[in-house]
Amino acid sequence: MLQPLKRATRAYAALLAWLTITCILGSGCTSDGRPQAESKSIPSISRFGGIEVGYSTQEDLAKRWGEGRVITGGHPNSGRVWRILGTGWVLHTDSFEYSARGLVVDTLTVSEDLELERNAPDARLRAKEMNWMDEIFLGMPQPKIIEILTRKGLAPVVSTEDCGVQAFGFYPIVGGQMRKWTGVCKFRNGVLSGVTLSASE
Known about the structure:
Elements: H1 2-26, E1 47-48, E2 51-52, H2 58-65, E3 69-71, E4 79-83, E5 90-99, E6 102-111, H3 114-117, H4 142-151, E7 157-158, E8 162-173, E9 176-188, E10 191-200
Antiparallel strand pairs: 1-2, 3-4, 4-5, 5-6, 6-10, 7-8, 8-9, 9-10
């Protein structure tokens, strides 16, 4: 009578150990089964219009901005396009890498692009909500942008037509990590006419 009970106890203990290891390694849990805090460090230059390039997924963007027009990007149908209501501006995002949360948006461009604007839906956010790091807006004078970037300790590299910044962080993706974020501002007649943000390994 005791042998079947011992075998059942050992089998249960082995199953419990396997489930614990699987949870820790594969599902992001602690040793007692509680969800583990997500390990990430996303720099501020990733933020635009309430999302974070290099962290937010296509699903995150759809929830915040509405469904964009699907176009070809790094993967078939991985690109999305929206118009910004009341302006001539267009938002264009692309996604290539996957994380545990889904397909990660690794490139965002906002600019005037008549070709991309065709048949694109309007984003839910208003123009004033489409800003970079909560402070930089399209149409802002170049000296003001340089002042903001410098105040944030980003050391912009400046020319007459553009300026660029970069920052480092980390976010796990399938097969590696996002580590480097870049931001490029384009100027026309001394004011901001476009922004491109990207994240890469």
